[in-house]
Amino acid sequence: MKIGVLALQGAFREHVEMLRGMNVDAIEVRLPEQLIEVEGLIIPGGESTTIGKIATQYGLIEPIREMVAQGKPVWGTCAGMIVLAKDVGMRQPLVGVMDVTVKRNAFGRQVDSFETDLNIPAIQNGDPAPFHAIFIRAPFIESVGEGVQVLAQLENGTIVAARQGNLLVTSFHPELTRDARFHEFFLKSLTVKE
Ligand code: GLN
Questions:
Q1: Ligand 1 centroid vs 126 CA: distance in angstroms?
Q2: Pairing mode, strands 40-43 and 2-6
Q3: pLDDT, tens digit, 9 for 90 and up, residues 79-106
Q4: Can you give the CATH number for the domain in which 38 is found?
């Protein structure tokens, strides 16, 4: 199984390390032709405007859209979630394929970074241990379209993880923890078609 991590800017190394620790063949993707050899792609956290601009310059936007259309799993964490969203309330280069409205830097300056334990039944599979979620100047999902499954919410109802077919998005950074359950969930979507 070969998984690509978009390595233009941001926290891509941590995803690669997490995947390699799970015995997955993970490669850093910088060129469109590399997308042909991977079965899935992770778009990491970082700065979505920068990632979108570089992806445009490198001719990666259309090939990523094609991957999505082919049904290959694509997961965006934090800035990656912004890059995958159809609507972010402002103009910036996006892959723009998921029916969600995302608000950038949504938690404001006072609490721009925080950590919390979340109950995420989809990845816990009956395991009572919550998932420790790290938010760094994170976006959240304001609204979801038809066919989007909400996976995780904060106590006040704020949506912080969702899935639509082969697309997965999280506001937080599972690659910055030692908990591989979210990565496992993503890899499982490679083999289990729903
Ligand atoms: N604030 C960043 C953005 O808007 C996202 C932050 C992150 O990925 N940790 O792109």
A1: 31
A2: parallel
A3: 999 999 999 999 999 999 999 999 999 9
A4: 3.40.50.880
